[in-house]
Amino acid sequence: MSLRYLASRLTQGIIVLWIAFTLSFFLLYLLPGDPVITMLGAGGELQNFDPAEVERLRSEFNLDQPLPVQYLLALVAVLRLDFGTSIQTGTPVTEAIASSLPSTIGLAAVALVIALVTGAAIAIGATLTRRPWLRDALAALPGLGVALPTFWVGLMLLQVFSFRFPIFPAIGTGTPTAVILPAVTLAIPLSAIIAQILFRALQNAWIQPYVTTYTASGYSRLRLLLRQALPVAVLPALTMSGVLFGQVLAGSVVVENVFSRQGLGRLAQTAVTGQDIPLVQGIVLFAAAVFVLVNLATDLIYPVLDPRLKAATRNVPADATRTDHEGVRA
Amino acid sequence: MTLTDFLAWPAAGAGTELLDKPGVDTPSVDEPSVDEPSVDEPSVDKPGVDKAASPIATTAHTSIPAPVLEVSGLSVTYPREATSAISDVSLSIAPGGTVAIVGESGSGKSTTAAALTGLLPTGTVVHASTHSYLGEDLVGAKPRTWQRIRGTGIAYVPQDAGAGLNPVRTIASGLAETLTVNGYARPRIGSRVAEVLDAVGLDAAEHGRRYPCELSGGQRQRVLIANAIAADPALIIADEPTSALDATVQKQVLDVLSELVAGSSTGLLLITHDLGVAKERAEDLIVMRNGRIVEAGRTQSIIASPSREYTRALLTAAPYLGGGRLRPSTEAAVDGAPNEATATDAEVVLRATDIVRDFGGPHPAVKRLGVELTAGRTVGIVGESGSGKTTTARILLGAERPDAGTIELHDRELSTYGAKGLGRRIRYVHQDSSAALDPNYTVEKILTEPLRGHMISTKKDRPTRVRDLLDSVALDESLLGRTPRELSGGQRQRLAIARAIAVEPEVLILDEPVSALDVQVQAQILQLLVDLQQRLGLAYLFISHDLAVIEQIADQVLVMKDGLVVESGDTATVLRESSHPYTRTLLDAVPRFDSTAVTRTAVTRTATRPAIRLATSTGADHA
Questions:
Q1: B587 to B247, B319, B325: CA distances (angstroms)
Q2: Which residue among A209, A306, A325 sits closest to B397, beta carbon to beta carbon?
Q3: Of the given ranges (A195-199, B25-29, B282-286, B583-587), which has the lowest mean pLDDT?
Q4: How does pLDDT run across B175-229, given as a tens digit for each residue?
Q5: Which helix (H) or strand (E) holds B269?
Q6: What's the CA gap between B7 and B93, in Å, rounded?
């Protein structure tokens, strides 16, 4: 892994952040409504406000400037790592994000553990079983899991496990058990993605010649799967960790609202409805930054885990013999 | 099971020299009863301990060791297939003995190997009147039984197509795992890994911590052997263990296997398409075709006097050293095209001087190479993989720019022709025809495409021209609508050649064009190439790792090693009188028939050639 590669990947990451910032900025302006009005009163009774007060707030948030100027001012501020304050609450954006983060991280962690266990179990079970009907049934589960809307799953779980059988609290962040239902809700699409990717990777690994080699060496099916196929199959699954992270963020917006939990998703939702531009921008930048970092980390770890990539970067003209003369002519 | 088809020849190893009657079915003294009760061995932790205690040993003659594996009437039908892949296969392998199964692809060799290791896909129907391993009945054995026997009892060496070993585990950890599976105690594993790696000529400290992708093909094949022998099996089944390897590496790998078997009680079943390999390594030989045993018996006797026509044809087709260059079939020679008489003053078509190409490896891919291609003549390039053969080919066809040196086509620099001009004059035939032909195109489209691209003949005339082309490579018109996948390997290579000559080029660069083909098909393709050259006056650059093939087709030969031409000259002279140690190594590595067999096959060779010529002559009489 050369420094030059790292530098180019970081540059790409910065470009991604800039695009995310720009897109979210202009999209927010396309939304109907006025943030200052929204802030001053949750309603449309414009005539009750002191116009001078509205003007003061407008200029405080640079809202009185032409759009390009606003954009540049916002961009410069971000480049100076000044993310501003929330229009709605007046708290610094970084503080708002930081305070909502632990709850979401806790939720995501529990959900991820549930998703990994069930996803892997489904994929391994489907690969290992000799019964076609069971394999088909298990293989169909991921499709179902992705198709179920998160909010519907959340409401159903609430209905059953909080109201009909009051096992778990319906809302809130307080008690430790309160995390179970939201985490399960969030875990369902995650486990579906994990199961699908892993199942496909395992199936692919399962037909490789080395599986025959080790079968012929007396390995049991379970051992073959866990010790030979799985280490190969997790590699492609690893590249999807960025997608999983995106799924966690998107899911948390819905789940935290359904279950009335504190968290980044809830914060994002209220920020968007209130057209709280600095806060939305802050959250978007934060999410994009984490996304970039997750992908970068995956890329950096991958060659360490897969010796084939290490070898490939060393042998330069490896594929020189494969080109057909036909291609030269074109 | 018929008695005539059943051949339970006794052990050849351990000094037993019994019943050595060539070509005669041996009496089935040690044929176990079909109703033999199965032996209930609870677990095989110490392989080899119970071997003598098998019931066969007590019933059979004491002088003949009980066979490790005894099979008769074995037939296999794959799911959703009407006909059986193999039927009525019988064989017997003695402790310390080596049996080879030879046959072309589709003959059922590999199915036999899979059946003997219990590795057939689920749903496959297997029948056998006898299938016993050390006296244990394996007819209808459960997966659990197979799992117990594999590794410690029957081990399998697959052909390494680069994926026979887990890519993300180091060599040592893979071997350690196999030992764990086969009941080796942890403290013993480390030393055993070192032992088996040492046995296959690898160093535990150096190679053990590497990954498969960091090893060469030959080294990987050795690791596969190490993995097979790790738990000290009673029988090794090796399925084409050396087919992907150069002759020199092939020799090393086969030596490893032979040494392991020699002087031990381990039996070896060697599956190969190469009669030369079988001849050198196995006491007993089984020739298979279309899923059935054609002939079986002592290797020496079969090679010396094959009793079946098919075996004779296989022997005839097998390339061997000392046969000399192939002559064009008479029909083609009638045209009186330039041959040896005029060849000396024939025009030089392509001339390369002082070619250098360096990819930045330990040595340049090609250094200071010079070659002249003459109309109607063939220059062969021979060398191991990585010696620079293919890079040379790519440079000469203009696909790769050399770092230094000049290439002239008719005294004009190659680069001045442009891609299209070059494509018209120099054509390339790839080893892997299935990769070189568009799988979605029909035969007709594949042959029309170059005609259209180079604006050869009018649109109206093209169908006729395509048929002529098919005819010249002896392919039937009925194949026009097929896609490459629906053709056999030999037919595909003929198609690739037809496509190459479609634009009437002057130079054909043939990169291992017959290496992926069975010997018989290989012989036909070589004859086709010789005939086409005679008829069309083509200059060939023929790349091969096989000296026997080079001898058949090349007038001159360049021997390459590490990018350098170490020897060059007239093919016959180089092969006969070479003094260069590297050429000698290559020559020594070629499996060969002994002199009596060679003269015998040389005689039969001319006798059966018409059968092959018939295939190509259909194409030769059109002009």
A1: 9, 13, 16
A2: A325
A3: B25-29
A4: 999 999 999 998 999 999 998 998 888 888 888 988 888 887 778 888 999 999 8
A5: strand B267-272
A6: 11
| Domains of chain A, CATH where assigned | 14-79 (no CATH), 94-313 (1.10.3720.10)
Which residue among A130, A213, A317 sits closest to B227, beta carbon to beta carbon?
Answer: A213
Beta-carbon separation of B168 and A231 below 8 A: yes
- A interface with B, Cβ–Cβ < 8 A, is 130, 208-210, 212-220, 223, 227-228, 231-232, 235, 305-308, 311-312, 316-317, 320-326, 328-330
Q: Is the pTM of this model over 0.95?
A: no
Contacts of A324 in chain B (CB under 8 A): 428, 430, 435-436
The residues spanned by each domain of chain B are: 330-620
Question: How many helices and strands, by DSSP H and E, does chain A display?
Answer: 16, 0
Indicate whether B337 pLDDT > 60: no
The structure tokens 């910032």 sit at: A21
Amino acid at site B287: V
Are A317 and B399 inside 8 Å of each other by CB? no
Q: How many CB atoms lie within 10 A of CB A54?
A: 17
Q: Which chain A residues are Cβ-neighbours of B117 within 8 angstroms?
A: 216
Q: Are B168 and A232 a contacting pair at CB < 8 A?
A: yes
The answer to whether the Cβ–Cβ distance between B182 and A217 falls below 8 Å is: yes
Question: Largest alpha-carbon pair distance within chain A?
Answer: 84
User: Which two tokens mark B407?
Assistant: 């290439």
Contact residues on chain B for A321, CB-CB shorter than 8 A: 390, 394
- Contact between B95 and B35 under an 8 Å Cβ cutoff? The reply is no
Question: How far is Cα A14 from Cα B297, in angstroms, rounded to an integer?
Answer: 73
Residues of A in contact with B400 (CB under 8 A): 320
Phi-psi region of B275 (alpha: psi -120 to 50; beta: other; left: phi over 0): alpha
Query: What's the complex ipTM?
Result: 0.72
Give the tens place of pLDDT for each residue, B540-591: 999 988 888 899 999 999 999 888 899 999 998 888 888 888 888 888 877 6
For chain A, the residue count is 330
Q: Residues 6 or more apart from B4 whose CB is under 8 A from it?
A: B25
Please give the angle made by the CA atoms of A62, A68 and A72, to the nearest 5 degrees: 70
Collapsed DSSP state (helix, strand, coil) of residue B28: coil
Q: Which residue on chain B is closest to A305 by alpha carbon?
A: B168
CATH of the domain spanning B330-620? 3.40.50.300
